[in-house]
DNA sequence: AATTATCACTTTACTACTCAAATGATAATA
DNA sequence: TATTATCATTTGAGTAGTAAAGTGATAATT
């Protein structure tokens, strides 16, 4: 019989949770005709616009190639614009993109929160946030 | 300016962490010629063998179609066997699969643990495990 | 002025997943 | 015995990601 470490048990739970909740979120966002990844991208753009593609790619942990395709799709649906300045493309939301994000925003945040609100007290959520933040910052460093 | 909820901040950190650490893990496991998903599948088989495909699919949160393809690849590399009994296929590790898993097991668990060992005390890890377990069990219920 | 370098972005080839329709082995029914 | 039903698994079509090679606009060098 193999012996687990505490860390490996945490890792497994987190992987399962993010996988499951990501699937549920994709299902939930269908009413807005968005995927979880698209929502994430639109939100980051709304916070940091105008933002370059490579900066955006880093924020949403996707490769350059990946963000290029995603933005092509979002541009086709007229949710964003790319304004080229020298060799850099600056991304902004269109009014249509802004409206779509605003429509989905509250519902999606309530949806995300529900996973924690249903199981943890406010104090426990604060603790969880502190711990996971430390862990995530470390893995972000290691990714470079 | 949009207002975040505590839950949405936790959600984002978790998504980022699992994405980043999954990428790092795939890189790490190249030395064993495995992906993170394959390691997970082999480990579940070793614990529950003989196990049917549909049970295995549930354990690793992948669809029936997905597990079918994964197992086809693992079978081609002779790491697993599928023994058909009536309409069900029971999956087991081959000696080769067992050996590959044993080779990778300790290293991979140490790798997974390192994300937490580098940032959290043992006590903090226990707390994190308790909290995330409650959250994950809830999302597992909701997935059904 | 022509060539070369730089660098953000795009594209190609590949992998791996999803959903849903098809397959195939057996059981139940007519 | 032929037909139909059942149900785990497979397959086809589509989507989304990766790594790495290609593109194109500008800057630097000769």
UniProtKB/TrEMBL annotation, chains A, B:
<dbReference type="InterPro" id="IPR000835">
    <property type="entry name" value="HTH_MarR-typ"/>
</dbReference>
<dbReference type="InterPro" id="IPR036390">
    <property type="entry name" value="WH_DNA-bd_sf"/>
</dbReference>
<keyword id="KW-0238">DNA-binding</keyword>
<dbReference type="InterPro" id="IPR011991">
    <property type="entry name" value="ArsR-like_HTH"/>
</dbReference>
<dbReference type="InterPro" id="IPR036388">
    <property type="entry name" value="WH-like_DNA-bd_sf"/>
</dbReference>
<feature type="domain" description="HTH marR-type">
    <location>
        <begin position="1"/>
        <end position="137"/>
    </location>
</feature>
<dbReference type="InterPro" id="IPR039422">
    <property type="entry name" value="MarR/SlyA-like"/>
</dbReference>
<protein>
    <submittedName>
        <fullName>MarR family transcriptional regulator</fullName>
    </submittedName>
</protein>
<dbReference type="Pfam" id="PF01047">
    <property type="entry name" value="MarR"/>
</dbReference>
């Amino acid at each position: 019989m193999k012996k687990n470490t505490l860390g490996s048990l945490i890792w497994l739970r987190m992987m399962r949770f993010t996988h499951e909740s990501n699937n549920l979120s994709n299902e939930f966002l269908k009413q807005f005709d968005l995927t979880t990844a698209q929502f994430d991208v639109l939100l980051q753009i709304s916070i940091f616009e105008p933002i370059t593609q490579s900066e955006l790619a880093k924020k949403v942990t996707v490769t350059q190639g990946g963000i290029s395709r995603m933005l092509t799709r979002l541009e086709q649906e007229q949710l964003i614009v790319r304004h080229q300045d020298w060799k850099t493309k600056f991304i902004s939301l269109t009014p249509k993109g802004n409206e779509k994000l605003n429509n989905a925003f509250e519902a999606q945040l309530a949806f995300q929160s529900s996973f924690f609100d249903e199981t943890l007290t406010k104090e426990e959520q604060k603790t969880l946030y502190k711990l996971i933040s430390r862990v995530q910052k470390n893995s972000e460093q290691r990714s470079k």
